[in-house]
Amino acid sequence: MPYLFLGIFFSSLILIVILVFKLIKIRRNSLFEEKLSSFKEEIRKNFFDVQNVFLNSSQAILKEFSKIYEKLGSLDKETQSLLNLTTSFYDLFKPTKTRAILGEAVLKNLAEEVLPKEVVFPQYTFKNGKKVDLVIKLPEGLVPIDAKFSLEGFRKYLDAPQQEKERYKKLFIESVKKRIDETSSYILTDEKTTDFSLMYIPSEAVYYFLITETDILDYAYKKKVFLVGPNNFYVYLNTILVGLKALKIEKKSKEVYNLLERLNKDLESIQEDHFTLGIHLKNASLKFEEIRKKLENFNLQLKNVSKEE
Fold first, then answer.
1. What number of other Cβ atoms are within 10 A of residue 137's Cβ?
2. What are the domain boundaries of the chain?
3. Contact by Cβ (8 Å): 87, 204
4. Single pTM value for the model
5. Nearest to 136 by CA among 148, 146, 151
6. Of 53, 80, 155, 187, which one's alpha carbon is 20 to 30 angstroms from that of 225?
7. What are the pLDDT digits (tens) for 156-184?
């Protein structure tokens, strides 16, 4: 009996020990899971922090790259502007014949680009044998335009040393006056030209130089010659275009007016015919009534004769 009791006691003790170990193990597992979960949360938080830092850094880098691209674009424009300026100066100092051909071609292309081709006549020859680079045909007459402009004098003026500048400037102005005389010679009223002509300056730089010289402007005004550069010549062409469109509208308006005039006359004629027809119908109605009464009277007399018999 005592042995049985001892066996039960030791068995119970062993079970209690086993349960305690299991509880300890479960507790450890729970703590481990809590720590693991906390560690995971910390890793996740750090990951998002790193991600935000990366995104912010990426946006900042993109903004910097955008600024760099803008500066590169601006630099490209400036470079292109410089290349155009260089090309302009290169064209300015081309051989005279090449420049003349180029000036005439640009003049022709500008005019044909803006105006209807039927009013643009390049290399126009007058009856007296004179040939001008371009003529624009307007209702008021032919507008002669000359582009044969020598820039050799201007080149020499630019290249001259400071002490020689004034002398070469005077020489250049004299050569310009000769060109003005030549352009003025295309004003031929007997061949239905306008009472003025245009002298096309193929370089804006030279054009602006010339219009600041009052001596040149006064001389050109007396000769009825207007100086035009590439930019204001384009404006002049567009002004002509507006005028041509206005004339076209005016012509159409006159056609409509003439048509209305004819319709009005036709209406008046119809009204007169209608009035005449009305009079004829009225007279016919009166005549019809007169004949009807005569027939009634004749019929009455005929009946009376029959009764007497």
1. 16
2. 85-246
3. no
4. 0.49
5. 146
6. 155
7. 888 888 888 888 888 888 989 999 999 99
